[in-house]
Design the sequence.
């Protein structure tokens, strides 16, 4: 928005379901782009438009974000961030082994830590009216805690998961943020401090303000 | 097993919970290594040993597979396969854009398609004794079908998801295989044919036989 020409273009919700809290997956991509100093344009899409053929040509599952750069079109926040991190300095270490380990944390965030968190998050919407809902919530919380026990043990008193801040931390911080309001992360002081460290980064703040401006209707720039 | 010296080493279940059906995540890594022609060693771990500090040093979440190569240690099947695919020809296209799209399908398999499949798969173990279990099963099946509707529409009558066979297809085929026995994939003839195409690859067969040999107690070689 406000940029012109050949900048990469991402998509985001026209009507933010979280009212600008920055929990939608475009926030992850915005943060990554801010970390590497790459300006970008945003195209907002409505829930209706997301399910139409034009958007599905970009995203087969009818979701956001997408990423367009010249004739390249990508979807999946993990893939987009890895692409950005591989093309620009700032999100992955130079050393090949350290780089592979940072990428491992991206996958761990998306395939090991996030799925039980999504289950917990979506249950009130999907099954909140079912008679079993109240009984299932503690079971789902236990599954999340199982992952957080291990994550907290591995992080220990380090600042980031493996050396310097990386795309793996970016992804993990964003995944943990989805637990806001549950009080679960607060039971792990080192994870709570880890999330706060992520949120204190200038690039995070710029990304957060930009996505929030979509909700408030103000220009971030 | 049976190799010596400097080969990469992966871990796999000592006692295969699926009795050699090749549904554990070491099968994905074995398949990738076979596709690129990289021999490997396997260290089998018991369920007890998986949760002990020595294994957790390799895998913070106490799971398999892990991957060790010289002084590099990785976990997460997605990260391991991406590492293998980036170091060897055979799993990712040479063209940079096509490469980024193939990696996108890896993330789509792991973060968009697999999570509802894991939910459906684990429910009988985790909640099979609960009064709500029978009523929840169709809800979970619907969530899987939502993803498969979109995936089937995108695949159409193509052989693979984006041009030639890639690590993205490898991962998606393995994720869809987790639905075996549910009859769901069979409702999408193009997806059933896609899975069968993956399983017909010589590298798949070699990997399958190797993991099956752990269960039957026979040497694959």
Sequence:
């Amino acid at each position: 928005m406000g940029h012109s020409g050949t900048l990469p273009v991402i998509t985001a919700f026209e009507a933010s379901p979280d009212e600008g809290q920055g929990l939608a997956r475009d926030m992850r991509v915005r943060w990554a782009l801010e970390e590497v100093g790459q300006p970008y344009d945003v195209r907002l899409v409505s829930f209706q438009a997301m399910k139409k053929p034009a958007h599905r040509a970009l995203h087969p599952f009818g979701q956001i974000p997408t990423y367009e750069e010249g004739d390249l079109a990508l979807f999946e926040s993990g893939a987009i961030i890895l692409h950005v991190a591989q093309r620009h300095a700032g999100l992955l270490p130079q050393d090949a082994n350290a780089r592979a380990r940072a990428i491992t944390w991206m996958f761990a965030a998306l395939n090991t830590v996030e799925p039980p968190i999504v289950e917990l998050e979506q249950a009130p919407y999907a099954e909140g009216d079912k008679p079993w809902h109240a009984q299932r919530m503690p079971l789902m919380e236990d599954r999340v805690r199982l992952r957080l026990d291990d994550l907290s043990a591995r992080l220990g008193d380090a600042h980031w998961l493996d050396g310097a801040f990386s795309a793996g931390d970016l992804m993990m911080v964003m995944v943990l943020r989805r637990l806001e309001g549950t009080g679960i992360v607060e039971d792990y002081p080192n994870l709570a401090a880890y999330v706060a460290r992520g949120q204190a980064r200038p690039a995070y703040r710029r990304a957060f303000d930009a996505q929030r401006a979509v909700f408030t209707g103000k220009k971030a720039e």
User: Anything to note?
Assistant: The beta strands of chain B are 9-13, 41-45, 66-69, 72-75. The first strand of chain B starts at residue 9 and ends at 13. The first helix of chain B runs from residue 26 to 36. DSSP finds nine helices and four strands in chain B.
